[in-house]
Amino acid sequence: NGISVKLFFSGSPKGTGNGASIAAALAVGLFELLGKKPSLDELFKAVYVSESFLHGNASGIDPRTVLSKNAVKFRKEYLADGSVTFSFTEDKLCLPDKTELLIVKKNGVESKQTTGDLVALFSQTKFGKKPNELSESERKLVQNDFNPVVLGIEKELHKNGDAKKLGELFNENHALLKAGNVSSPNIEEGIKICLQNGALGAKLTGAGGEAGAFIALVWKKDVQKIKQKLEDNAFTAFEAKLAEYGPRIE
């Protein structure tokens, strides 16, 4: 017996886990076909095979995220022996009241830059070295820049969070990434449109680059206005929702 697969693509931009989502849906379907009820760990291993094939030494953040019912905190650590560990923890985060998150991409833009290419570009820009050539002290310099901002963002991700502060932290995070040369003219153009039309803050998401996307924190009352301004300038904006469930059979 053959298997028929039909894909429905939302148009979600590069850097938002499309590959892992397809692999997760296929894995869930195959387990169902085989009459098996996989554990979360078994599902992860199945999806990770696809991620490793597509991205080489993948961190696993995309499979973990698409399989999760909650937001996922991801941390990459370099150990003294030179090895790398990845840790994942789930948390029930949410946006401050009366705000919405938009994911935005420029229409019709393609890029051959991979995540690895952009990570290498950031490293070369900051230190003139490849990522695997960085010393422990150089990695800590990057962490020291980003950690306070990331922890600040996490602190405001609840219903009563300070939306204006969260927007400011988005902007700070983006400035650090831009300084690492992983933004692009398209991302900068889109962020400018959002901020000029009432967005609280915006930052690139994923690896960035020519065809990269960004996220913008906006008041719900301004969503349609900002989406229209973006559409007028050849951008597409998606209203993002925090997950309440992972892949499932419907």
Helix percent reads 40-55%
Q: Give the class from helix and strand content and strand pairing.
A: alpha+beta
Largest sheet: 4 strands, antiparallel
Topology order in helix (H) and strand (E) letters: HHHEEEHHHHEEHE
> What is the helix tally?
8
The end-to-end distance, rounded to whole angstroms, is 22 Å
**Radius of gyration of CA atoms, rounded to a whole number:** 19 Å
What shape does the CA trace take? globular
Mean pLDDT: 91
DSSP summary, beta strand count = 6
Strand order of the largest sheet: 4-5-3-6
β content, as a range?
15-25%
Q: Can you tell me the residue ranges where pLDDT is under 50 for at least 5 consecutive residues?
A: none
Description:
With 250 residues, this protein is an alpha+beta fold. The chain has eight helices and six strands; from the N terminus they run H-H-H-E-E-E-H-H-H-H-E-E-H-E. The strands form two sheets. It has a four-stranded antiparallel beta sheet with strand order 4-5-3-6. It has a two-stranded antiparallel sheet with strand order 1-2. Helix 1 crosses helix 3 (61-67). The protein is globular, with a radius of gyration of 19 Å.
